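Justification of computing resources. Each target in the renewal requires a structure prediction run like the one illustrated here; the chain below, 321 residues long, is used simply to show the kind of job we budget for.
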Amino acid sequence: MTQDATSGRTGTQIGTRIGDGRIKAIRKMLFRFPRGARARAPARPRAAHWNAARPEFSHIVNAASLAMPYLEPYLIRTMAKARPMVSDDPALVHELNAYVAQETTHHRQHRVFNDELAACGYASVPRIEAVLAEDYGRFGKTKSLMFNLAYAEGFESMALAIGHMLVEDRVHLFGGSDRAVASLVLWHFVEEIEHKEAAFDVFHAAGGTYGWRLYGLAFATAHIFLRTGQGYRALLREDGLWGDWRLRLRLAVLLLRIFSKLTPKLLRILSPTYHPRKVPDPDWVTAWWAAYGAHPMEMGEALGDLDTTQLHKPEPALRAA
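Resulting structure tokens:
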């Protein structure tokens, strides 16, 4: 583990190769997150406004990140309950286990970033987290396994669509932003694209139907968008920005841009013949995988520190030493 005077806590950088299957590695990344420090708006530190040019996008991502330490353990628990139902398929069990391992690294890294966000002094952060903890705890305790599997599959299908949108529009959304936070988000969705088939295949192997799949997609999408919207509005209010009509206009334009790109990707999921393996992997993502695979010891750190001024390039641009 590494920490320096200008960064928050980080993750380890040595990854684990896991052999055959679509999921090739459990990558332990190193991110030097900007440190949180209590400050009044508009002097929020970089941990909060990590994209200084787009505070509205910063807080959309921040709000989504706050969900990860609750959402992803819920997905892991759901998959653990489903494991006995797919035990006669060793290849699927292998993918399930690799999926769980990747999700574990995701929520741990997001927790580190979220702690820096909380250190900025946002009173809404613990309230947002309490709602999310209650939601996912209740789903796990009171809903059927089929509901939870459908939610997991719906989330993963939505995440695949979001991942493609983020990668395609990475210059606009992340250009010039804090390297560590942009690298965290892009790494997360690079791996969402990598394990795109796991939840889908487990859901169907456990008896999931087309109707359940559509319900899970609709419920998960509505739930996550609702909580993310509540979260970013609360954070913007604390910054004193929610009442600024110029910020609201920029936010509306940004959301229109995001959903114009995202909606076609979500609509294809509705097809009865949809399978995530039919969705081609973006070239930038395959280049990211190849870069890590060639030198995993070094790339855990290098890919956690992407040069966000060079995101237009067809492969991940590593910051010059």
